[in-house]
Amino acid sequence: MSNEKRLAVALSYDGNGAPTVTAKGEDWLAEDIIALAEQAGIVIHRDPALAQYLSTLDLNETIPRELYLLIAELLSFVYMLDGRYPEEWAQLHHKISTSA
């Protein structure tokens, strides 16, 4: 069994500003955060280095600028998994299908 601490950090994003830390914990609390997220159907990204970094932030603190691109890519991937795409993509698809 590993002696490594298990960390979990939950982020929230409302579409404005930057994502914020809404929950964080280690060991049993991390397990509870993960279990609640799974029950709610929330996508979980497992990255120990990112979790370690995010765990240094305070609750309700926004992520630092250095993480904007990484978190934006993760959010984009989650949105695509959920079938949500930017309006411009639908218009682009329409332009391609009508010009062929």
From TrEMBL:
The keyword Transport applies. Keywords: Bacterial flagellum protein export, Protein transport, Transport. The keyword Protein transport applies. Gene3D superfamilies: secretion proteins EscU (3.40.1690.10). Required for formation of the rod structure in the basal body of the flagellar apparatus. Together with FliI and FliH, may constitute the export apparatus of flagellin. Belongs to the type III secretion exporter family. This is Flagellar biosynthetic protein FlhB. The lineage of its organism: Bacteria, Pseudomonadati, Pseudomonadota, Gammaproteobacteria, Alteromonadales.
